[in-house]
């Protein structure tokens, strides 16, 4: 089974509420000395958007990079490079979500403390492209993040051109737990 298929199968189980049984003790033991995740996932810090749950995966399966609004800076890009090059995940998923608080705040605009302002600044372009609509802006942000990763990471660009990495954009829907491929 391909990596994307493995994620989508897991998401199907999650939406149906029938998660696969997991022997966490055995898995913890297996991954005690090393990790070999099959996917890197960039997503939002939102407490409802946990990739391991959404894709029904276990310890050691998913290399996760999260922050509010799933935006890029040197540290997140470096983390993505660690997952894709050092840990060799053949798939990189950039997953935004419905009703994102960070995107909603960016759409509303206004003053905010400096560290949060840094997040808002990163979301300015997507909000413009989404014409201030929260869902359109969230989807625009997923695509903008993928473009930014390709533009700013020589490593990712090389892995992609060598056929060693596939990048997929996804959006997560809170109510039914479904993920949709958006590019
Ligand atoms: Zn969010």
Could you characterize what this model shows?
- The protein is α/β, with parallel strands linked by helices.
- The mean pLDDT is 97.
- The chain contains eight helices and five strands.
- The chain has a domain at 3-98 and 150-181: Beta-carbonic Anhydrase, Chain A, CATH 3.40.1050.
- The protein is globular, with a radius of gyration of 16 Å.
- The chain has helices at 3-16, 24-30, 51-54, 74-86, 101-108, 114-129, 134-152, 154-161; strands spanning 39-43, 62-66, 91-97, 166-172, 179-181.
- Strands 2-1-3-4-5 form a five-stranded mixed sheet, with helices on both faces.
- It binds zinc ion (ZN).
Strand order of the largest sheet: 2-1-3-4-5
pLDDT under 50 segments (min length 5)?
Answer: none
Q: Number of DSSP helices?
A: 8
Helix content: 40-55%
Which quaternary structure do these chains form?
single chain
Fraction of residues in β-strands: 5-15%
Distance between the termini: 21 Å
Shape: globular
By CATH, the topology of the domain at 3-98 and 150-181 is Beta-carbonic Anhydrase, Chain A
Q: SS-based structural class?
A: alpha/beta
The secondary-structure element order is HHEHEHEHHHHEE
CATH level 1 name of the domain at 3-98 and 150-181: Alpha Beta
Bound molecules: zinc ion
Rg estimate, integer Å: 16 Å
- By CATH's scheme, which homologous superfamily of the domain at 3-98 and 150-181 applies? Carbonic anhydrase
User: Mind telling me which CATH architecture of the domain at 3-98 and 150-181 this is?
Assistant: 3-Layer(aba) Sandwich
């Amino acid at each position: 089974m391909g990596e994307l298929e493995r994620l989508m199968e897991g998401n199907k189980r999650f939406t149906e509420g029938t998660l696969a049984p997991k022997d966490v003790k055995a898995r913890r033991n297996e991954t005690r000395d090393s990790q070999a995740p099959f996917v890197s996932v960039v997503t939002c810090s939102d407490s409802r958007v946990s990739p391991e749950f959404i894709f029904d995966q276990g310890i050691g399966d998913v290399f996760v990079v999260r922050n509010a609004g799933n935006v890029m800076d040197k540290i997140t890009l470096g983390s993505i490079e660690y997952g894709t090059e050092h840990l060799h995940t053949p798939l990189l998923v950039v997953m935004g979500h419905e009703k994102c608080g960070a995107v909603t705040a960016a759409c509303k605009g206004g003053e905010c403390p400096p560290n949060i302002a840094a997040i808002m600044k990163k979301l300015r372009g997507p909000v413009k492209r989404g014409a201030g609509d929260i869902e359109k802006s969230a989807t625009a942000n997923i695509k903008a993040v993928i473009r930014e990763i390709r533009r700013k990471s020589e490593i990712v660009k090389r892995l992609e051109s060598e056929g060693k990495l596939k990048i997929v954009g996804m959006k997560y829907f809170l109510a039914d737990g479904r993920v949709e491929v958006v590019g």
